[in-house]
Amino acid sequence: LVGAKVRATRTAAEVVRRAIEVAGGGSLRTGDELGRLYRDVLAGGFHPSSDRQAAETIATTLLGPVPRAS
C-alpha cells in the first residue's frame, strides 16, 4: 500500500507539472485550479508519510529490520 501511495503521488505530480508547462507559469497564482492541484500534489509527498518514510517501510518489509549495534 505504501508503494502504491508513493507511485500515485509521483505520477500525479508529473501530470500536474506537465499541465503547468502547457498552461504557463501564470497557472501557479493564487486562486488558479492548476496552482491548487500542484500544491495539493506536493503535500501528498509528506502525508501521511514522506517518500523517505515510505522507502524505509518498504526496505524493512523486504530486508528485515536493521540490526542494532552492540
Protein architecture, described:
- This is Acyl-CoA dehydrogenase.
- With 70 residues, the chain is mostly helical.
- It has one domain.
- The protein has helices at residues 2-23, 33-44, 51-63.
Number of domains: 1
Number of helices: 3
Strand content: under 5%
Q: Distance between termini?
A: 33 Å
Concise structural overview:
This protein is mostly helical. Helix content is 67%, strand content 0%.
Which helices and strands, and how do they pair?
Layout: H1 2-23, H2 33-44, H3 51-63
Helix pairs in contact: 1-2
Key structural traits:
70 residues; mainly alpha; 3 helices; 0% strand; elongated; oxidoreductase activity, acting on the CH-CH group of donors; oxidoreductase; AcylCo_DH-like_C
